[in-house]
Fold:
Amino acid sequence: MFVAPIDRIRAGLSVLPALFLCFGTVGAVGTGGAADLPPLSHRLTLIEDPAPAPPLRLEDIDGVEHDLADLKGRLVLVNFWATWCPPCRREMPSMERLYQQFKERGLTVLAVAVGEDMDTVFAFTGQLDPAPTFPLLLDTDSRAAQDWGVKGLPTSFVIDPEGRVILRAVGGTEFDDAAAVEQLVPYLPKP
Amino acid sequence: MRFTPQTGPNGTHSCRLSFRCAAAAAAVVAVLGGSPISAEPVRSDPETGAATYETQAHGVGLSLTQLLPDQVRAFYVARGFDLADADVFADACVYMTVLRNDTAPGELDFRLSEWSIHHDEEVRPLPPLDDWLAQWAARGVPDSARLAFRWAQFPSEQSYAPGEWNQGMLAMGLPPGSRFDLIARWTIADQTYEGRLDDVRCTD
Structure:
């Protein structure tokens, strides 16, 4: 279970007003209202010539280091996102549902917050339903995003158990949609 | 609405859209017998009045929704900009921009450096991201704020397979109150396509 130190909670609360302001500005207003939001995609893009994934070794918001190299043998969804990014916020609950559905079968989700600090990311997590239980990594200088060739947020990659990038998703995606799940399941590690 | 599908000598396909004659555009689409080009009317946010301009061209969707100067200011001040620095960007006609490969016949590539604005009888490029970043560095905007700025912008270049898209801020570099046409360009398998939004208004 995730337990936050009280000083982190206080820090998170201190940035909440600014955060809500940003969400209001870029989210609801930027798209003209909920009914007009661009639809999330339901499919991932197949990478025709899978290549080894770039290195990814970052700390999460609890200070725990995660290294993609340690996850060989698992199917890994790497998601680059930011708290102020409306499609990132919209797709994240679907990542949690996907994670809950398949983590016992070998799925790992690593959500990499680009250019943001621990307090900002932590404050954000309490606004999601369901809240993410997978690691939220901090790419504070956005170097990892650049190393992975990310040009816009959100961008996600699926790494197969051999460590190769096999699928990608540019733009907000409903990861637990049946069409996306159908693409992912064949790559889950064999029992 | 004006709607003029074109195939120029260089093989560029384009469509031209404004929103005065939607019925005429629909008729042309019908005559073309299932052309992938269609038009949607502009809409306005009931609370802010911010307008959205949309077009569909060759299986690609493009939309602009103005972010009002106060909204832009608030966003960047919250990310570490001084008010004076945020004002510079807020007064440059900023739009939440969405480009999406809906049903194009393949993966598209675009560079914003190949898009253009028609304003006051002149054709001009969009202000490049690097110019903004250089300006923020010269004005002493903190690194973290510049990083937030960079990632909040619509990508300078990108590739979208069918179903892929991005949403980000795009400044036209025009004063509030301007009216302009935006011409977006992308390529699919070395073929260039255009999508055009005519008579976009920048509310001050």
Residues 38-201 of chain B form a domain with the Immunoglobulin-like fold (CATH 2.60.40). Chain B has one domain: 38-201. Chain B is about 25% helix and 35% strand. The helical segments of chain B are 22-32, 69-78, 83-90, 129-138, 143-152.
